[in-house]
Amino acid sequence: MENIGLIAGNNRFPFLVAKEIKKNGGRVICIALKEEADIELGKVCDKIFWLSVGKFQKIIDALKSENVKTVIMAGQVKHVTIYSAIGMDWRAIKVMGSLVNKKTDTILKTIASEFDKDGIHLIPSHIYLTSLLAPKGLISGKKLSSDENKDVEFGYKMAKGIAGFDIGQTVVVKDKSVLAVESVEGTDECIKRAYKLGGENLIVVKVAKPNQDFRFDVPVIGIDTIDTLRENRVRAMAIEAGVTLMLDKEEVIDKAKKAGVTVLGI
Questions:
Q1: Per-residue pLDDT averaged across 64-90, rounded?
Q2: Mind listing the pLDDT tens digit for each residue in 99-135?
Q3: In terms of Cα–Cα distance, which of 200, 197, 196, 147 is closest to 176?
Q4: What is the pLDDT of residue 206?
């Protein structure tokens, strides 16, 4: 039985990964990030270490103590948590000091390189959850009008553009105008900002980055996403098919239908 490391951020993603690892015969050795992870994670992991984001060497030591060679990162870690990591140990300080910039990809690829130095290898975070990837076409809700489909096409091009610069992966559009671009605040806050500017009947488009590194930062939507769409009177959300994870997929589809929000894979 192989020990698989799970570095857990917030929300449901880590729970689902842990469940699938165990279903596939692995033992889950969890590094629960104290600033982000849910206290209930201890119930689904075989062993859990509660450590702060900035304690990089302790994270490495904990994984090595359990003979972990393979690690998955799952769950959001807010940028503000990374930037304000208080009490960083010497290794975290070294990593942060070596960065040429603080874009998400730069930070995470540098962290992955540090893990490799200790014989610990990051694998794609959706590797156990391929059944939850968004299919192509209409997923839930009513078909879009011709004009709404044109907004989706427009939004897709815009979203791919910002994703290529590692700014964000989501845009909100209306009448072929970009109302909001996701940055470090995350998808939900981007949607709320767009609603304040443009009102109802918005189109949200979420994509993967060009050459996305699926070891981290996989596009994800979940039940909370649908709540945000409903509360901000979004008409539709288009997500990139085959690469976007739909956590609690059946519940997401059902909730979107009841909320009158169209979800489609593009």
A1: 82
A2: 878 777 788 888 899 999 999 999 998 999 999 999 9
A3: 147
A4: 98
**Domain 3-122: CATH class, spelled out:** alpha beta
Structural domain spans, the chain: 3-122, 131-265
Outline where DSSP puts E strands in the chain.
3-8, 27-33, 47-51, 70-74, 121-122, 137-140, 170-174, 177-181, 202-206, 220-221, 234-239, 245-246, 262-265
Identify residue 206 by its one-letter amino acid code.
Answer: K
* Buried b / exposed e along 141-168 (16+ C-beta atoms within 10 A): beebeeebbebbebbbebbbebbeeeeb
What percent of the chain is predicted at pLDDT more than 90? 77
- Topology of the domain covering 131-265: Cytidine Deaminase; domain 2 (3.40.140)
Which of 158, 167, 260, 161 is closest to 205 using CA atoms?
158
